[in-house]
Design brief:
single chain; 847 residues; alpha/beta; 21% strand; globular
Length: 847
């Protein structure tokens, strides 16, 4: 095994005819490594390996990993170096295409990470098994477990008599972390042994089916068998029932046994008393055989397809303009106000692509959105569509991946950002709906890619057109459209001439001064919700913070509970009666008294969705209230239940975070309440103004989508801010031009690219010194476009202290050169003994 420093995938790729010649393979491993690695291909595996195949190799002393073959060679690229052998081949056919490998290479280069990290993010877990650490009791140890500590005894008891248990499974069962020191102590006394074993990876879902054996797949032979079974009536009836279920008559007459229908063993044995024993007897005689039948991913519910809708004049004009735009440009922006009918235009464009034999990828920013849009698209495209996102079991995602590599791939894939990694054989269109959403940006771990930007490159690379859609496009996208880089098509009116909602601003500060607002609801908002509920209409309340209260405060001394691992206050979740860190996920007990002054007067301050929900239930007792946030939507079915119940009218008052702002379509929503507009405006971010406008405009767009005009009540302490007036007027262009001038003046996107470099370490002083040293190394190249280092707003997460450097990348700096400078500075930094354990993270195009 030896790293190869040439550019990834630059080695000669061999086609299938040459696959029997090579003796050496270059592998990509799912690790944060810059290089590919060379392994020897043993003679027994020659001819079985192709570019894109998965193989099992040993990396390091004990660990085994699944690698992807990126090239094959007939000569050793590193002569004189002893190479390890490939141990096994997973696949008969490659599971990654050359196009995907090129896309991974681009992503690693642009987002300044390693190809192995891209591979790890791209493949479902079932396609990249690796060896696991197993722990078992030692057969040779004859000591007394009673001498163990409580932690050691718990571990010992968990092992039982099993041959080996994964260390991660034991930690999960015992609800503890870092059991490795305990394992080492038991190893020192010879009580346990530790070994590595390759994980099972993906195993297809199967069920037992029954079929005729080859010797009896003939009508004449079967008639002779049936004559001989007259003294065994149960066997005779069982065989006749099988033939009936398999629809054997026509198939056997034509000598086409392969046309027999599949018959489940369980279905057959349920058809008659004693059929289970009869079937075993027929198997013993060799007439039939049972076998594992590989199932496709779980079939979707069959739905009646809807007749094709006619586009109205605005939609038809948009459809035609988009097609014309694609004649000159690869990317087009569809800027249409909320409820203008953009989705129907998408559907018509998708139909055109599928009709011409091309595939379509439809990207959405949130899993929550897929619930509604899936039902809508399923009624148009039926079984031609599949859904792909992380809430599905890994088995389903693997099966979909393999289906896309088969001769019968799905023409339409609907999914979130990870769907961009799926294999496509003939892509024709990528639709990026709600393109402005920050959820398209992967934050952790690497690659920290933006699915919208990656989709544009993906489309260019594979010859597919790209359609970006939004009612409130990102400034960068709209700027590119106005400058001619992208095509631009606009839909300024709502479908069916429905009116945009009326937006009323409530001055919360003034209302509280006059003692007119003792609850989270202003008088106007209460009146409007009451009226809507009485008229059997619905209301949505938007509060972009989950939990009950953002902070607990001691009334006497002002103490607030903080996370022990992160530099943030803990959020009070009343339903679980816990304090939760929303950065690392740690939970803490709610203290009965202040640890500083021992006062028992601990007050909650501020509002989260839980508190808004409780207040809504108290003020509107007749309402059927539900809450939609991360706490109530942990599973895919939870999303579906909440949205289905609200769409059906089973609930009529929905409290939620930004999940409720993103493209959901409910007919009866007349009132929307934005509970605290100031919360978004106070963020220390140059995008705060833009994000606030987008979020408020999007949530306002949920009101009055059909029927009478909707009403939005916007509660704020700063009613005179320009962004509030722009939201009221629905004046996107005013917001755009105002913010664009600021961006131009201060050298921000779209005029400059940004890269944030984070320096992390468990020791505060080391992190600070490393950040200063890194800035010193980078400043000669970036000059005044390097800002910092500085401590970010949250300067400690998961026990790591963080410093941040901002790089503004001018258009004349090439991405490859920027990456080289950063990589060189990183190497020089970690070569210093004091900084070897420092972690560096590059976030390209942060949001």
């Amino acid at each position: 095994m030896q790293p190869k420093n040439d550019q990834l995938f630059s080695a000669r790729h061999l086609d299938h005819r040459e696959a029997t010649l090579p003796m050496f393979v270059q592998l990509l491993l799912p690790l944060a490594l810059q290089n590919t690695y060379t392994y020897l291909l043993p003679a027994r595996l020659e001819g079985k390996v192709r570019v894109g195949s998965r193989v099992v190799v040993q990396f390091g002393k004990k660990r085994h990993y699944t690698g992807i073959v990126v090239s094959l060679a007939a000569e050793n690229p590193e002569p004189g170096i002893a190479l390890k052998e490939v141990e096994e081949v997973w696949d008969e056919a490659p599971i990654v295409t050359p196009d995907q490998l090129r896309f991974w290479q681009w992503m690693a280069g642009y987002y300044i990470c390693t190809p192995g990290e891209v591979m790890k993010a791209a493949l479902p877990s079932g396609l990249k098994p690796e060896s696991e650490t197993l722990v078992a009791r030692s057969e040779d140890w004859d000591g007394d477990p009673e001498e163990f500590s409580a932690r050691e005894r718990s571990l010992w008891d968990e092992l039982g008599a099993e041959e080996g248990v994964r260390l991660t499974d034991i930690e999960r069962r015992l609800k503890v972390e870092n059991l490795l020191p305990t394992v080492r102590r038991l190893m020192d006394v010879g009580a346990v042994k530790v070994f590595e074993q390759m994980g099972r990876g993906f195993t297809p879902r199967t069920e037992t089916h029954v079929r005729l054996t080859d010797a009896y797949a003939d009508e004449t032979v079967l008639n002779q068998v049936l004559d001989g079974l007259r003294r065994a009536p149960a066997q005779e009836q069982c065989l006749l029932t099988y033939l009936d279920l398999a629809d054997a008559g026509a198939a056997l007459k034509l000598h086409h046994a392969h046309l027999l229908k599949e018959v489940r063993r369980a279905d057959l044995t349920r058809c008659g008393k004693g059929f289970d024993a009869a079937l075993r007897a027929l198997e013993k005689k060799g007439v039939v055989e049972s076998y594992p039948f590989v199932l496709d991913r779980a079939p979707s519910k069959s739905v009646a397809l809807l007749p094709r809708k006619q586009l109205d004049e605005q939609q038809q004009n948009a459809f035609n303009a988009i097609r014309r735009s694609w004649e000159e440009k690869n990317v087009c922006l569809l800027h249409g106000v909320t409820s203008s009918g953009k989705t129907e235009v998408y559907i018509r464009l998708i139909e055109e692509e599928i009709r011409q034999g091309r595939q379509v990828l439809y990207l959405l920013p949130e899993i929550a959105l897929t619930t509604q849009i899936t039902e809508r698209l399923r009624r148009v495209f039926g079984e031609d569509m599949a859904v792909y996102h992380s809430k599905f079991p890994d088995r389903d995602r693997v099966e979909l991946w393999k289906r896309q590599l088969s001769d019968h791939p799905y023409p339409l894939i609907l999914g979130v950002r990870s769907a961009l990694f799926l294999p496509f054989c003939n892509p024709g269109l990528v639709v990026v709906d709600e393109e402005h959403e920050t959820s398209f940006k992967q934050q952790d771990p690497a690659p920290r890619y933006h699915a919208r930007d990656a989709a544009i490159l993906w489309g260019t690379m594979f010859g597919a057109k790209v359609l970006l859609g939004s009612a409130t496009p990102s400034l960068e996208t709209y700027h590119h459209a106005l400058s001619g880089k992208y095509g631009l098509v606009e839909m300024p009116r709502r479908f069916g001439e429905a009116q945009l909602p009326e937006i009323v601003v409530e001055d919360v500060k003034e209302l509280r001064r006059k003692k007119l607002m003792k609850t989270p609801f202003s008088p106007r908002l209460r009146e409007e919700i009451d009226a809507a509920l009485q008229n059997r209409e619905q209301a949505i309340l938007f509060q972009n913070r989950r939990g009950y209260s953002p902070v607990l405060i001691c009334h006497e001394c002002g103490w607030t509970p903080r996370c022990t691992r992160c530099d943030v206050t803990l959020t009070f979740h009343r339903q679980q009666n816990t304090l939760v860190c929303h950065y690392c996920g740690n939970t803490f007990h709610v203290p009965e008294k202040c640890p500083q002054c021992e006062s028992t007067r601990l007050m909650d301050s501020g509002y989260g969705t839980e508190k808004i929900e409780d207040a809504a239930r108290a003020i509107f007792p007749a309402a059927r209230t539900a809450r939609m946030d991360l706490d109530t939507t942990r599973s895919r079915t939870a999303y579906e239940r909440l949205i289905a119940a609200f769409a059906a009218g089973d609930t009529n008052l929905l409290v939620g975070t930004q999940m409720v702002t993103k493209g959901l379509d409910f007919e009866k929503v007349r009132v929307v309440g934005i509970m605290n507009a100031d919360q978004m405006l106070s963020l220390p971010d140059f995008r705060a103004h833009e994000r606030s406008f987008q979020m408020m405009s999007q949530v306002a767009g949920r009101a009055g989508r059909k029927g009478q005009r909707g009403l939005v009540v916007l509660q704020t302490r700063q009613p005179n801010l320009p962004v509030v007036e722009q939201v009221v007027r629905g004046d996107y262009k005013a917001m755009f031009h105002e913010q664009l001038e600021e961006r131009r003046m201060f050298r921000y996107p779209p005029f400059f690219r940004l890269i944030y470099v984070y320096v992390k370490h468990r020791d505060a002083a080391t992190a600070s010194h490393a950040a200063e040293e890194l800035a010193r190394l980078l400043r000669p190249f970036f000059g005044t476009d390097l800002l910092g280092p500085e401590r970010p707003v949250v300067s400690r997460v998961k026990l790591l202290y963080i410093w941040k450097i901002m790089l503004k990348i001018s258009p004349d700096k090439k991405p490859g050169e920027v990456r080289s400078r950063l990589e060189d500075a990183r190497q020089r930094l970690v070569s210093q003994s004091a900084f070897r354990s420092v972690t560096l993270v590059c976030d390209v195009d942060p949001v």
